[in-house]
Task: structure prediction
Amino acid sequence: MSVTRIILDHVNFEWTIVGLKRFLDYWYEGRSLREMSELFRRPEEEVLLLMIDFSKRLKIKERPNGVGANDPMYIKKGVMSAKKRELRKLFEDQPVYYACPQSDFIWEEKDIIAFRQMWKDHEPIRHIANRLARNVDEVLFLIIDQAELGVIEPRKGGAFGKEYKREKKKHSIAV
Result:
């Protein structure tokens, strides 16, 4: 019989409309993950999961320094207002919003063990996802879980592993 485990079971995925609107403000103001975590008085992983969720839903634009501190991004007042109004659609059937609603947080222990070895071998996250027949986001959540537990260590190239290549990208103004 295979043992299963729910990852990130201690994380609060619930967000209010006020929290989501504040998150948009903080994102475009250039605030870092750490700073947002302090402002929301929530653990960094909870804010990070919202970042991932909103990035997938194209609610936020990529920033040059990612989750680190960034210069503020110019966004027209009307565009920001429209983005905030659009957030209401996320609350159609429920009083709160749950980040990452389509993600599967249930893992078999044998897959977690296989993941740890691939992580140690610097396999790229895409390869890990393919081998485990999971999507990349779910593997990213497992990385967060395993790092929190202290089971895996940071590695050169991070999630990209041995495929990591530093690129300089031009980042423009958000629309």
Notes: Residues 17-29 form the longest helix (13 residues). The helical segments are 17-29, 33-40, 44-56, 77-86, 109-120, 125-132, 136-148. Strands lie at 4-6, 14-15, 97-98, 106-108.
